[in-house]
Amino acid sequence: MSLDEDTRWLEWVTRQFETIAGEDKEIDLEEFKTALKVKESFFAERFFALFDSDGSSSISLDELLKALDLLIHGSETDKLRFLFQVYDVDGSGSIDPDELRTVLKSCLRESAISLPEEKLDDLTLALFESADKDHSGSITFEELKAELESFPEVMENLTISAANWLKPPDLEEKKRHPPRYLTPAYWHNNSRKLLFLCGYACLNVLLFAVAAWRHASGGPWFMLAKGCGQCLNFNCTFVVVLMLRRCLTWLRATWVVRVLPLDQNILLHQIVGYAILVFTVVHTFAHVMNFARMSHSHNTYRLWEYLLTTRPGIGWVAGLASISGVILQLLVCLMVLCSCTFVRRSGHFEIFYWSHLSYIWVWVLLVLHCANFWKWFVVPGFAFLLEKVVGSAISHMNGLYIVEVNLLPSKVTHLVIKRPQFFHFKPGDYVYINIPAIAKYEWHPFTISSAPEQQDTLWLHIRSMGQWTNRLYEYFRQADTPAASTKRLTMNMTNGQHQRKVQVSAKLGDSHKFCNIKCYVDGPYGTPTRQIFTSEHAVLIGAGIGITPFASILQSIMYRYRMRKQNCPNYSYSWCENIKDNEMKLRKVDFIWINRDQKSFEWFVSLLTKLEMDQADKEPEGRFLEMHMYMTSALSKNDMKAIGLQMALDLLAKKEKKDSITGLRTRTQPGRPDWGKVFQKVAEEKKGKVHVFFCGSPALGKLIKAHCERFGFSFCKENF
To answer: What pLDDT score does 332 carry?
Structure first.
């Protein structure tokens, strides 16, 4: 650090010390633990003991500054010696197996990783045997140093860790970048959307100007009201077009997808919704001001009579324009409010769902309110009605049955539904499902997680995040039987001349059950991920349950792989290069799955294991499918408390040829991905144009999209 940075660092540490220490000007062990925010007290105690140089059971400001100065300004050897002292619990000058096991056990707890005692012993043995070069039964400082030097990445991160440990955040230099919306990459990657929005804005301006000019004789407030009214005619119709899911799914298979931003229909629907709110507020305000002017100038009716009665006779149907306008204003505000992210993402999806159904009343009132609205609405309205009728008829024609349920970690419900013969979909598609046993009238969208090639069943993975999904999970969790059985039990109930089967329950275990519950499915509907097979290099990024669309895609890819391998078992060339079909242009797929905790990997670990087995044979140009797993709760390699554990996990993975956390061959990486390095590696592979497909939280999506624009990659976010 520079002299100026040193001065600021000293001031910051002093302020932090005074805040933590309190009146006695000393930091005791409990205060030190609180300041470090560590989960496992072992490291806090070891750091405290090393900082407390005089053995007084408290740390003074001078002791803290001396220790931090060594960690930040000290040499590489100084930092390694500090790490060695942390591991050397008894201070004997060497690390024995028991000390190493204690350290690794604390590392596991700190990283929220749960492993059997036998696996902990294996980790300890792997690291100890590798580091104990002279087989003396203990690890000296020189041996630990030599072992760390064989892991250059760990050595680099040790320096980073020491330099940033307890470093003030304001010392991190913030690089100034131009706003992403002004970069050429952003305009290039979003050209279709931006051109479309530009055309949409120009059309609104044109409609407003023409309507206002035609009613110039009514005064400025009347002109403003009429201009906004004409824009509302268009927008209240266009918002319907953007939700014609079947039409959009069909258009995605045509050339239109290369011209119009069909994959952004949800975003455009939201933009048009906000535009409707703005136009409605301005339209209402302008009419109120005009009515106020008229009530003062004519003295025929009062303002409240203009607004809340039919006496003035305004409107083409029984003078209902004003009353219907007030109701419309309230309904539009309610719909927009209940559509906000904080409502939909806070476990109250039902509020959004039921409030959005008021669109029916909005259209009815619009027809009563405006004499010309029906002319705008008749064609899109008919298409929307036709979609609803066709969807309802298809979904109820043959009621489907949930035949199997798996309750997975993190309250994820895996539904296995018997697939009808006429149901055809593509990887990444989603459906709306209705389960009368949970809620008779509610339909909810979920991605199909099984592959189209899987003929007998459909899979849905549903995470409990709201009222309906929680009820679904609890419904199956609480379904008990007098005795566990592997047979499906049903009982017949007679209702008139019809006989139906009602599922009682049959358990294979507490989390795996057979059942026979009726459900209805509307769909399938297409998503941006349909483009994956026309990409050359696809990067699939799933966060948590966001893996579901990619589970279907990965299975479909490997189904095709197996089919081609059967047709040409003795090939000695890369199948993705030489055995293509018209729908498949893929040359490389990188799959990145980010999970918060260890248990979340259990959702699809069996599927991922099969995918790895399918690629057991090496190909001349390297693996077609590469998987990258990240566990965010685990301390990353730039944390001093995790270095030993990560070295042990690396060594054991090489020895056993599988990851200790997931059981996959792919090593699970701790912490969050460094997107700059990830995309740099992708760019260096030069497998063709890169398309990044993402499904996960909006905040992470924005971060990944910004990196994609930096590298010139196309970005698609899974949305429905």
So the answer is: 92
User: pLDDT band at 4, cuts 50/70/90?
Assistant: low
d(CA 463, CA 514): 19
Whether residues 268 and 380 fall in one domain:
yes
Residue 638 within a domain: no
Q: What are the φ/ψ torsions at residue 512 (nearest 5 degrees)?
A: -125, 120
Same domain, 116 and 209: no
Are 213 and 321 part of one and the same domain? yes
Contact yes or no for 176/16 (Cβ under 8 A)? no
Residue given tokens 């750091």 in the structure block: 47
Q: CATH number of the domain that 30 lies in?
A: 1.10.238.10
Q: How far apart are CA 225 and CA 229, in angstroms?
A: 6
Q: Are residues 9 and 84 in the same domain?
A: yes
Q: Examine the pLDDT at 54 and tell me if it is beyond 50.
A: yes
Q: Is 221 in contact with 295 (CB distance < 8 Å)?
A: no
Among residues 393, 420, 445, the one where a domain terminates is 393
Residue 568 confidence class, pLDDT cut points 50, 70, 90: low
DSSP structure string for 440-494: TT--EEEEB-S-TT--SEEEEEEE--SHHHHHHHHHHHS---SS--SS--EEEEE
CA distances from 171 to 5, 19, 37, 407 (A): 7, 19, 20, 47
CATH code, domain carrying 687 = 3.40.50.80
Backbone angles phi, psi at 698, to 5 degrees: -60, -40
Name the more confident of 273 and 218. Answer: 273
What range defines the domain where residue 627 resides?
528-564+582-633+671-718
